[in-house]
Design a protein that fits this description.
The structure is a homodimer. With about 450 residues, chain A is an alpha/beta fold. Chain A has two domains: about 230 residues, Alpha-Beta Barrel (nicotinate phosphoribosyltransferase), CATH 3.20.140; about 180 residues, TIM Barrel (Alpha-Beta Barrel). Helix content of chain A is about 35%, strand content about 15%. Chain A is built from 15 helices and 18 strands. In chain A, strands 13-12-1-5-3-16-17 form a seven-stranded antiparallel β-sheet. Chain A has a six-stranded parallel β-sheet with strand order 7-6-11-10-9-8. In chain A, a hairpin with an 8-residue loop joins strand 12 and strand 13. In chain A, helix 3 packs antiparallel against helix 4 and helix 6 packs across helix 7. The radius of gyration of chain A is 25 Å and the shape is elongated. The two termini of chain A are about 50 Å apart. The N terminus of chain A is likely disordered. The interface between A and B is large, with 124 and 125 residues. Chains A, B: InterPro entries: Aldolase_TIM, NAPRTase_N, Nic_PRibTrfase-Fam, Nic_PRibTrfase_pncB, Nicotinate_pribotase-like_C. Chains A, B: It is an enzyme of class 6 (ligase). Chains A, B: It comes from Streptomyces colonosanans.
Chain lengths: ~450, ~450
């Protein structure tokens, strides 16, 4: 097999199959009609943010670049398409030579976005661009949804570290991408080993109720954990009686005990009690980690509690109520003919039933106020005003088919923190509201 | 590499890395304490259904079996764990020889479930079972959430076929599993080529607004599509003016036109108008496909509309408001010693803060009323009452580490339809309510 082997348990040999059937049949029809080679501009954007959200977070860009690089139709894939009679032989021939050769521009990963922001722009022939629609949207819609939730949680947590632990609540490979997005949004660590392996994100772990229940007594379990993992470990103290567990934990580990984890009950109340007890036992340096269906609101409500770290699972990996963004991939301009020099014509859906969009290849810039704080997302199709020239948001990601903008996740994470910090203060209010920046069209 | 290569863009070499960090550190501590080999029983269950739902749907079982078979620690994975100092050398040695050798029982895939149903039971040593927690929960939580939404949509759609088209709204590999779950829940086809390749699900496609916009006129676009794909194709008629598009479509394709797709506007109203227009033009056999943010409620509201098929995306792949189930994997019994013949002791978390569970290895049976309709989910830890002996729900899936229950997706799909049909009529009410069967503990 020429291309990437996704192997078991997935067994999809190339990112080219992460594609909707109609992309290929449209390609066939356009090839036959002589329109497939018309130069085209597609843009990714959302018409709105999830209800009540103040800003969006671009995430997944690095994964999109991987997917575009590995988008190839090898013999297995072509054999499948032939056997199913999805497209004709001419189209299969065309697909066999497929390699994206166009340009991609986009908001750099970690940047914030607003309704209408042209988050990504893909330019090339209609044929080569239309095929990328599904996989680009899959990645950006998933990863950005998780990153947006992570960013809100990170704001709410302030300086306290957040641990991503939602792998068990989402598809096993979505979990790997979710841990990546959480890191971009401001999480410190993850429980997911695969994301440590693939992306180098620091992994951490505590222990589960099963470990305590395995042993004859809680004392035996704590002893086993400390003997093996050291006093710096985190003991789970809510299997039976929390106060008794804390007492035994400090008795065994001494004041050097790393941390205790509380995974049930009224976390605010229990954290206060446990802190008092730990302090009274001399374990003033022992930390308190809380978990148990946390979301950004629960995290915020614990701001005054003596909590040292938050573990977040379900609500993170499901986007805290918004598991997907509503990003779309729309043709906004195309040439009048297959001549590579033919001028581009703006195009847009115009039916009355909604879902209209604005035609034309767009630029975007973030205008700042006199204090250097962002005050508007400005989008246009004409020349860029001089005063916005150095505030433009789109950067080149792919040039003539070659990826030109690989970045480390730490760069992306820092960019997100900076972009969020540059928004008006109301951006990090958790209450429902309008986007914190208005979108202005020039 | 000895194990499955997930390749780009994922690059996780084995399902063993779809695991939380703490599973491995618990293993290390248990190995050192001499408790790792205690015979153990873990069960997967939910404490509740998503708010308002009447039943759950077990999905992903087949994928769990693949994941268990491919759960191996090869040299790449061991190298990663060593470099990160996640576990010690003794534990790495143990992991190098890992192969699940125990038994797994479960509700057969496609079966319905209720709060407390022991959906899956994993038995073996603590060490070999605890490691499987994360990947089993990832798969079942994701796949069952999508299948439950699919099942409600299929009920609402009645005899009209449903097309899964949500790939662009979720992680690119979650999309493949989502298409599989949708099929289990009753969908007929999918747009996702990868799921066609991997699972043999029939794939279909129509066309996008971009295809119309690529061409100089809508007429040119329709002509191109019909010339290439035949009169039986589905034309998208809402790019500009629906009535004009329908007129042109029938003019070009004649009454043999396969279908038209409506993707925006008031679908109820537009579908009636389009049906009248098609009939007036003699295209009485031309079908109407509707798409556009459909969920089970929107589908139900279109029951009286002249619609022939529904395409569903976002709401399907995100579980229609419930993108994950709350399945947990709990130790319910374990031996008193590492002696393989030591008796099992029921165990359960007992702290006051909620999240308690019922210890002991469980059986489950569905009791029927005098008409043969399901009336209760009966769960027990003692002997099975004679009258329920042939209504037991758990079947053996893995025996001594060998998968013994591979099934085709069509068998699973048929099982789901039969299980749903055997529930009281109120099961398929879309309104919010209690689980349609009570759970009784014996």
């Amino acid at each position: 097999m020429e291309t990437a082997d996704l192997g078991l348990p997935v067994d999809v040999p190339s990112t080219a199959l992460f594609t909707d059937h109609y992309e290929l049949t449209m390609l066939q029809a356009a090839l036959e009609a002589g329109t497939a080679e018309r130069r085209s501009v597609f843009e990714v954007f959302t018409r709105r943010l999830p209800d009540g959200r103040r800003y969006g977070v671009v995430a997944g860009t690095g994964r999109v670049l991987d997917a575009v690089e590995n988008f190839r139709f090898d013999s297995d894939v072509l054999g499948f398409l032939r056997e199913r009679e999805i497209v004709d032989e001419e189209t299969l021939q065309w697909l066999a030579g497929y390699r994206f050769s166009g340009d991609i521009w986009g908001y750099p990963e970690g940047e914030v976005y607003f309704p209408g922001s042209p988050i990504m722009r893909v330019e090339g022939t209609f044929a080569e661009c239309v095929l990328l629609e599904t996989v680009i949207l899959s990645i950006l819609n998933h990863d950005s949804a998780v990153a947006a939730a992570a960013s809100r949680m990170a704001s709410a947590a302030g300086d306290r570290p957040l641990i991503e632990m939602g792998a068990r609540r989402t598809h096993e490979l979505a979990a790997v991408a979710a841990a990546r997005s959480a890191y971009v949004g401001g999480f410190a660590t993850t429980s997911d080993l695969a994301s440590g392996f693939r992306y180098g994100i620091p992994t951490v772990g505590t222990s589960a109720h099963a470990f305590t229940l395995l042993h004859d007594t809680e004392r035996d379990a704590f002893r086993a954990q400390i003997d093996s993992l050291g006093r710096d470990t985190t003991l789970l103290v809510d299997t039976y009686d929390v106060a008794e567990a804390v007492r035994v934990a400090v008795e065994i580990a001494g004041p050097e005990l790393g941390a205790v984890r509380i995974d049930s009950g009224d976390l605010l109340l229990v954290a206060h009690r446990v802190r008092q007890q730990l302090d009274a036992l001399g374990a003033t340096g022992t930390k308190i980690v809380v978990t148990s269906d946390l979301d950004e609101y629960a995290i915020a409500s614990l701001a005054a509690a003596p909590v040292d770290a938050y573990g977040v699972g379900t609500q993170l990996v499901t986007g805290s109520g918004h598991p997907t963004c509503s990003m779309v991939y729309k043709l906004v301009a195309r040439a009048e003919s297959a001549d590579p020099k033919a001028p581009l014509v703006p195009v847009a859906k115009k039916a009355s039933g909604g879902k209209t969009s604005i035609g034309g290849r767009k630029w975007a810039a973030r205008r700042l106020d006199e204090h250097g704080v962002a005050e508007a997302e400005v989008i246009g199709t004409g020349p860029v005003p001089a005063e916005l020239a150095d505030r433009q948001l789109l950067v080149q990601l792919v040039k003539g088919g070659q990826v030109v903008a690989r970045e480390s996740l730490d760069v992306v994470r820092d960019r997100h923190a900076a972009a969020r910090a540059n928004l008006p203060l109301s951006a990090t209010q958790l209450s429902r509201g309008e986007p914190v920046l208005p979108t202005e069209y020039l």
